[in-house]
Amino acid sequence: MADARRGIVITVFSTASAVGKTLISINMAAELAKQGYRVCLVDMDLQFGDVCNYLQLQPQRTLTDAVTALETDKNSFAVQDFLTTYDRYDVPFGVMAAPLRLEEAYNIQTASVKEVLLQLQLRFDFVVIDTASMFSDINLTAMELSTIVTFLGIVDFIPTIKNMKSGHDSIREMGFDVNKIRMVLNRSNSKTRIDLQDVEQLLGSEFYHILPNDFGAAQRSIQTGCPLVLDSKATPLKTEMRNLVARYTNRPLEKAKEDSVSWFKKIFQ
């Protein structure tokens, strides 16, 4: 395993709730899959994960089942057996669902989650992780494994900005490689009297990418279970989410691969 090629891990994190982590994670996964990459989306908001709700999936197995199987018999453990497939408009990607019951979250061990993520890295080009809004051991482990950490924030109220600064400072103090931390602003043009430049000065860092506010498009995506990047309707939010992924992959959008379905099927052979 140590010598095998590992996929890229992108963790979406925030110190504030309701900032759009799940929506951004889903669209990152969908856009990467659309470009032909082998992608798995992991819902690591263990208590209140919403990935499957957003995508209108009904998982038969979850991260809880994966961890239990791993701890029971590591030698026969096959991580792909615990994934739920999302496939719309011929754009498939795997989903590792969050626990279905609240009490299951308390029994999941960090070391086991780390092993699951390492196994996913061996089978996928990209592993996108949606996290809870806290500095938990599991989240810190995900960030340590990550190639890129998307630190998502919004500029709406002073407490939200305070939490964002506190989280940004904490990540630096923990010794994370600052080059892999990407500050991304969501809902940039929402109504607020707070100046963006003042926030960047407070953080001591400019935002890597800015996503516009589009409540209607986001709500439609959740209602239909279709990621914005797969929707035929063009919106500024869709465009900027695709541009963000293009910056991460360093590939022009028009150079997307065309064999995503065949690649995905190979994973389960």
Topology at a glance:
Blueprint: E1 8-13, H1 21-34, E2 39-44, H2 51-55, H3 63-72, E3 84-88, E4 91-96, H4 102-105, H5 110-123, E5 126-131, H6 137-145, E6 148-153, H7 158-173, E7 181-185, H8 196-203, E8 209-210, H9 215-224, H10 236-249, H11 260-267
Parallel strand pairs: 1-5, 1-6, 2-4, 2-5, 6-7, 7-8
Antiparallel strand pairs: 3-4
Structure description:
This protein has 269 residues and is of the alpha/beta class. The chain has one domain (8-250): P-loop containing nucleotide triphosphate hydrolases (Rossmann fold, 3-Layer(aba) Sandwich), CATH 3.40.50. Helices cover 42% and strands 16% of the residues. The chain has 11 helices and 8 strands. An 8-stranded mixed β-sheet has the order 3-4-2-5-1-6-7-8, with helices on both faces. A hairpin with a 2-residue loop joins strand 3 and strand 4 (91-96). The chain is globular and about 55 Å long. The model is unreliable at 256-269 (pLDDT under 50).
